[in-house]
Amino acid sequence: MANPDSNIANMTDYISVVEALKLVAPFKGDRRDVLAFIANVDTAFEVTDPRNVSTLFKFVLTRISGET
Known about the structure:
This protein is mainly α. It is 40% helix and 0% strand. It is elongated, with a radius of gyration of 16 Å. It starts with 16 loop residues before the first helix and ends in a 7-residue tail after the last helix.
């Protein structure tokens, strides 16, 4: 009989777009913050279901303001 935990490595859990967006602080154009912003956006996309990335992208764009 197969171990039910043996498929855990193949399972992926995602968080909602709302929760992923909480990882992305607003970016106001300060170049000192750009690397942290990019890293946070990257993390948000990694933990979001691929079917929802276009929606997340639209909301991430709203987090960018100031002179970029």
